[in-house]
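job 3f2a | input accepted
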Amino acid sequence: MAADGSRAPSAAETRRIATDPGRLDLVGAPEGFDALVMADIVRARGGLSVFVARDGSRLSAFIDAFKFFAQGIEVLQLPSWDCLPYDRTGPSPGVAAQRMTTLARLAQGLDAKKPTLLVTTTPALLQRVPPKDVVQSAAYSARTGNVVEIADLERYFAVNGYARASTVSERGEFAIRGGVIDVFPPNAEEPVRLDLFGDTLESIRGFDPDTQRSTRQLKEVSLLPVSEALLDQDSISRFRRGYVEAFGAPGGDPLYETVSDGGRRAGMEHWLPLFYPSMATLFDYLPNEALIGVDHLASQARDERLAMIADAYDARAQADRKVHYHPLEPDRLYLTAEEWRARLAERATRQFSAFQEAEG
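job 3f2a | predicted structure (360 res):
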């Protein structure tokens, strides 16, 4: 099916583009025009559709164009980690929080009729993620009048990757001062202040992170994880067993020692498969009927990313073991090209191309 780059698709073309259950190659659809086509698809189908951009810059540009053509349609984002494969640092707190917010929304389920677009990137689609049931059960909710134990909240913050701060200003931070608990949920626009009277939640107020002044009264607060590595006792035990099975005796590895003590270490996300019985992919979070649009350079971006991953793994694997960096095999952290193609083949897909199809 060709979408003529000189005009918008006709009503009949739009119907077919939106409803065909297989793969369609949409040629003559340069960047910007693909956002118009995706806007028509999302409106016509309802429910969740997905667009896979080649990288973060393209993601931002596509969202800007899409919002121009489809004002009022909700757009979710799943960015990729903003660190290199097998780096000593992990994703930044902001990126980690946004990823977990989006995964939690998908895990909880979206309105099957409300038009919604999820925009992600090639590296993010390649990245394996925590199991859906784990993310689904990791939410915490409290209403005014409920009994809230500070110890339980502190435990939740520790397990789910929140960082203690003297003054809360960034997503994923919390502070406890007597019976007052400040926390910036990853899914909120501003931090909230929980006032306890004894063990009863007396009030919940949003506040400005700059002035620390209250902005509004709330009846309920919902918290989500801010890290993909959830550190409860089961995951710590699983990490210890998996580490020894994969690499042998830890030999004083600071990562092993820190996690064994229930602590967090920079870059620990690169060993994410050791924390869970199995890993999932973004495909596992999507409803079966979700259509996936694919950037015209996504395949090249996939191959370049996989080559970078392989080079980084080889460099780490050949390094002196005294540096205490034992990398997991790439296919435990990332999809292979074959898996990518197979998972896309299971769904309705729209492969965009900026060029016209050759005659014959």
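job 3f2a | Residues 18 and 41 are 5 Å apart (CA to CA).
job 3f2a | closed
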